[in-house]
Amino acid sequence: MSKRVLFMGTPEIAAIIFEKLIAAKDELDIEIIGAVTQPDKPKGRGMEMKFSEVKEVALKNNIPVYQPVKVKEEEFIKVYEELAPELVIVAAFGQILPKKVLDLPKYGCINVHTSLLPMYRGAAPIQWAVIDGQKYSGVTIMYMNEGLDTGDIILQEKIELAADETGGSLYDKLAAMGGDVLIKAVVQIFAGRVNRIPQEGETCYAKMLNKELGHIDYKKSAVEIERLVRGLFPWPGTFSFINGKTLKIKKVRVVHNSELSVENSELKPGEIFNVTKKSFFVNTGDGALEITRLQLEGKKEMDTESFLRGYKIENGNMLE
């Protein structure tokens, strides 16, 4: 008899994982009895009510949708008990599950987490791996407990970050990888072949991203800033101010001293130098950066050469 599985998730990455689970339901011999996702929210300029990406996938596949404001509410707990899931799969759901929810399924509640736990527990593990200059990231499937991403590991797979990895490119890789690793883990769980691995060793919290995090501090090193630009691309993005206008910094390159025609040791952090028709550099607390793609307030994104045709930048101007 097919095992009863309930999926919980909200954003695009969860929807990608959900679609892989749906595609594998016959192979896994499961019945997906529902999708639990966050309530609809107003989005965009018109503030129209929008479905979560997981809800879109569920509706497309005729899977019942449940949208409790809080999963701990008695009203949802009653529905949950009536559904009687044997396994609950969670991916970027956005709520902490109470003990009543965790304890009911025969095979437990498992979570798809996009980091190599115990590193990067929390909301934004993908972007922080890039920002911090990690060599590897990956996907962890774990049993859930009442802590934040602290449960025993079921299965873990890793990938090496590319030299030009961005938050966006790593997101795409781990989203695709997440569904595959999940399916392997579910097979192990139903076969009773799970070797539970307690989380031990170094850990850190991957705090939620916000737009202010992208305001570049040029007192930091060129290497740190370059990683920040990559890690926060495409969202929330990095930015500076020039002559009172917001300048979104889309792509930068760390510059070696041998490439510079001007000695930068006497320049202030954020000071622009080596301005040509095609490019310009900015000094940092340690080293220099070439800005290669950018977007001025009210304008389209473009490469620096195109930008300099329509906007005058001089040596000594400041990015703040």
> Helix-strand pattern, N to C?
EHHEEEHEHEHEEHEEHEHEEEEEEH
Helix/strand/pairing category = alpha/beta
User: Mind summarizing the main beta sheet?
Assistant: 7 strands, mixed
Strand order of the largest sheet: 5-2-1-6-7-9-10
Q: Into which percentage range does the β-strand content fall? A: 25-35%
Instruction: Report the count of strand segments.
Output: 17
Tell me, briefly, the overall form: elongated
Which value, in Å, is the CA radius of gyration?
23 Å
Instruction: Give the averaged pLDDT, no decimals.
Output: 95
**Ends distance:** 63 Å
Summarize the amount of helix as a percent range.
Answer: 25-40%
Query: Which blocks of ≥5 consecutive residues have pLDDT under 50?
Result: none
Count of individual helical segments:
9
SSE map:
Elements: E1 3-9, H1 12-23, H2 25-28, E2 30-36, E3 41-43, E4 48-50, H3 53-60, E5 65-66, H4 74-83, E6 87-91, H5 99-103, E7 109-113, E8 121-122, H6 125-131, E9 136-143, E10 153-160, H7 167-191, E11 205-206, H8 222-231, E12 238-242, E13 245-255, E14 272-273, E15 281-283, E16 288-296, E17 302-303, H9 304-310
Parallel strand pairs: 1-2, 1-6, 2-5, 6-7, 8-11
Antiparallel strand pairs: 3-4, 7-9, 9-10, 12-13, 13-16, 14-15, 15-16, 16-17
